[in-house]
């Protein structure tokens, strides 16, 4: 018969809970003292770590920059869609918090390269992003910003500065978009104004013939003039879309279909009018004048809306809770150090008790 050889290292082949409990009972002083000693040591080490303070602010972002003009836009028909002001959703503001523009402004404002002991702005920016957390409430839409810093006052200042910089960034984006719209409609307005003056001069020079009075030119041509104005505004809208979107984009294709439909309707009405009425010089001049007048009115209203948007400071961020100087540190958590230290100490006590038992049984 062969004698079973012990496992390598002198450890028993099978180690069960009874063996562990027996070893701990036999070495109860070690089992009790070691976890508490290690936990006390871990708590003591936590005092060597520089405390971190967390400041928190919350605010409600503007939902839409176009709400103030919605009443005026309702009467613009085919041209209303060109007012597309920037929609500042909560997701956009959370992205703004993490943007390089906002981070660089805060780095310069609080001299964070020196605070973070970084030589490169890139590294300081990464540190700032790591110490900043932005979250969006899915139900209430409230955005919360938390900033960690070793200085409680600086943590609160940076958190509040985030809101200020977001206001400035949103205002600049809104101004840029409104300025582009204002310049675009301003150029269109000048062109239409020239054509309107020419149509008015042609109307004044045509005279009032008796046949023109019998035909009632106002009733005969105003509908067609209105349709022509709508077609032109639809074409202007399509032109504006193509400046930012590809020709195969769904919005461009849909607007192209609208333009085609308006062109077809205008051709149909023009043919019907030519078949039913022999137009004199006055009627044609009156129709052109009404077309240019209607078009000028539509673009002028859109131009005024763009001017109002450009003069505004952008959507207002409504602060709910400004960041206050935190009174308690957020890190390190000494309770966590104590729990982890106790667990490590207990594991060490078990290992030591088992080692002693094996040594005494050898």
UniProtKB/TrEMBL annotation:
Coiled coil: 175-244
Residue span, Tyrosine-protein kinase G-rich domain: 287-357
InterPro entries from the UniProt entry: Bact_polysacc_biosynth/exp (IPR050445), GNVR (IPR032807), LPS_length_determ_N (IPR003856)
Chief site of localization: membrane
Residues covered by the Polysaccharide chain length determinant N-terminal domain: 14-108
Membrane-spanning parts: 28-49, 336-355
Keywords carried by this UniProt record: Cell membrane, Coiled coil, Membrane, Transmembrane, Transmembrane helix
Membrane topology: Multi-pass membrane protein
Cell compartments where the protein resides: Cell membrane
Pfam families in the cross-refs: GNVR, Wzz
Protein known as: GNVR domain-containing protein
Organism: Roseateles paludis
């Amino acid at each position: 018969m062969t004698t079973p050889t012990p496992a390598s290292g002198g450890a028993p082949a099978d180690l069960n809970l009874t063996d562990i409990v027996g070893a701990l009972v036999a070495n109860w002083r070690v089992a009790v003292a070691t976890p508490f000693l290690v936990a006390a040591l871990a708590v003591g080490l936590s005092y060597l770590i520089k405390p971190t303070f967390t400041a928190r602010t919350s605010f409600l972002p503007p939902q839409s920059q176009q709400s103030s003009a919605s009443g005026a836009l309702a009467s613009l028909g085919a041209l209303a869609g060109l007012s597309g002001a920037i929609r500042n959703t909560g997701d956009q503001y959370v992205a703004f918090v993490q943007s390089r523009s906002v981070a660089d402004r805060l780095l310069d404002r609080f001299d964070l390269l020196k605070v973070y002991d970084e030589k490169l702005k890139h590294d300081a920016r990464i540190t700032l992003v790591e110490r900043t957390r932005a979250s969006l409430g899915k139900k209430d839409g409230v955005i919360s910003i938390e900033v960690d810093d070793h200085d409680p006052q600086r943590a609160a200042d940076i958190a509040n500065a985030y809101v200020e910089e977001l206001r400035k960034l949103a205002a600049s984006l809104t101004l840029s978009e409104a300025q582009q719209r204002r310049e675009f409609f301003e150029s269109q307005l000048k062109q239409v104004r020239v054509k309107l003056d020419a149509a008015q001069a042609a109307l004044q020079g045509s005279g009032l013939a008796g046949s023109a009075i019998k035909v009632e030119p106002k009733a005969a041509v105003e509908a067609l003039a209105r349709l022509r104005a709508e077609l032109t505004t639809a074409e202007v809208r399509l032109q504006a879309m193509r400046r930012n979107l590809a020709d195969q984009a769904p919005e461009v294709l849909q607007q192209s279909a609208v333009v085609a439909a308006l062109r077809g309707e205008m051709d149909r009405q023009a043919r019907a009018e030519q078949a039913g009425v022999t137009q004199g010089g006055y009627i044609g001049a009156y129709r052109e004048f009404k077309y240019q007048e209607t078009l000028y009115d539509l673009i002028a209203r859109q131009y005024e809306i763009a001017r109002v948007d450009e003069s505004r400071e952008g959507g207002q961020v409504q602060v709910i809770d400004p960041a206050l100087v935190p009174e308690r540190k957020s890190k390190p958590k000494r309770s966590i150090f104590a729990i982890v230290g106790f667990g490590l100490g207990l594991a060490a006590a078990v290992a030591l008790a088992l080692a002693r038992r094996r040594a005494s049984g050898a």
